[in-house]
UniProtKB/TrEMBL annotation:
The protein's name: Secreted PhoX family phosphatase
InterPro entries per UniProt: PhoX, TAT_signal
Protein keywords: Signal
Family annotation (SUPFAM superfamilies): DPP6 N-terminal domain-like
Organism, scientific name: Thermomonospora cellulosilytica
Signal peptide residue numbers: 1-20
Amino acid sequence: MERRRFLSRTAVLAAGTALAAGPFQGVAAHLRPDGPRRPGRGYGPLRPVRDLRDGQVRLHLPEGFRYRSFNPAGSRLGDGTITPGRHDGMAAFRGPRGSVILVRNHEVNGPVGAFGDPAAAYDPMAGGGTCTLRVTPYGEVLDSRVSLNGTQMNCSGGPMPWGSWITCEETVNGPDVGNDFSGGDNSRLRRRHGYLFEVPAAGRGRPAPIRAAGRFAHEAAAYDARTGAVYLTEDNFGFPSGFYRYLPPKNPMAAGRLLDGGRLQMLAVRGRPNADLSQGQPEGAVYETTWVDIDDPDPAFTGTPSNNDAIQAVGMQGRAKGAALFSRLEGAIADRGVVYFVSTQGGAPVTQPVPSGFGDGRGQVWAYDTRSGRLRLVVESPGDVALDLPDNITHSPRGTLVLCEDGGGDNYLRGLTVAGELFDFARLEPVPEDDGAEFAGSTFAPGGGTLFVNVQTDAGLSFAIWGPWRDGPF
């Protein structure tokens, strides 16, 4: 079930604007649906591989790669807590004696009650949060525990170089807001949601939201060491999304953590108020950008507005000042001064049906240069045969991007090399009882010897994948 893989290479830049040389500089803005220009060799064809945990086939991988699944939903953590489902965003940190510390999100919605100790929860009625595991590079669990509970819809986030994971709530649920699509009763929640929380790799997260970083449908966070800013994506499913940056009152590397009380801003295209970048883009599109301030990043709602109104409250402030429109911004990662982020349903309309919501394409990958302030389109998908609704992303030690797909049918882990090659690395074996299963939370262990990734579903689990990395672009 291999799919065609191709990218054209071109140096054409919109309006004659040139970016500094760097990763993905030669990658065109469009994949071609009619035939390969430059096939991505990657690591070769995929084949079914048995899970070393129990012998079942869960992944299709290239020759020579092996994997072990671990910590499925319903199993017990080392502290006795039942592992929740909906495994999502994740980061890997160096652990003692060659081990790896994983901090992992659980995107649980609704007032279902906190997992773990309710006395330690931010909101004892909310069922999301994070688990921290210490594992070997081969997916053998050495220790595991709850590290943050009582949050909600913990979707993605980002690893921070001072040794923390920023976890993001993809919701604005709370007792002051009407019910969302899940049908849960928000009046049962005790606290407001829609914030960032920090979880140290070596300890428990503080149940204190970073309110100045906004209350909106947060997805991912990426840190820029030069400026100390944290770049944020918004996955506002039914409405336009924005690309944000949070400027903390003190550089987190000096403070040792991300402080509240900073300034939130939203990206705009210079000279083009409310530029709609969710639509199909010209090849090599590059935009000069600026930033607009969000005056009230943590709005206090009265009268219990609808969830649809509340979830747009922060973004509408930015768009009133000319901020750009995107479709469903999800994964983000920073690499050498560039923040790469994904627009899951961005791009020109395609023939294949797309999920309901804002955006009719099959996905875009954008690159924001934090030094020049230029925004560049790296890839726009022409259809699901080439790239199907990219979601979480990370990068390998060599700079190759890893894209987790969130489409219908087969779901892949795909690689996008700095030379402009797109290739399939892994395919998820269909889960008969859950056709919505998808890859999420890809992250390389320090040193790059193991790729960890999750399957997000009610019966979620995590994988450790290892093999002959030097034979290919990761």
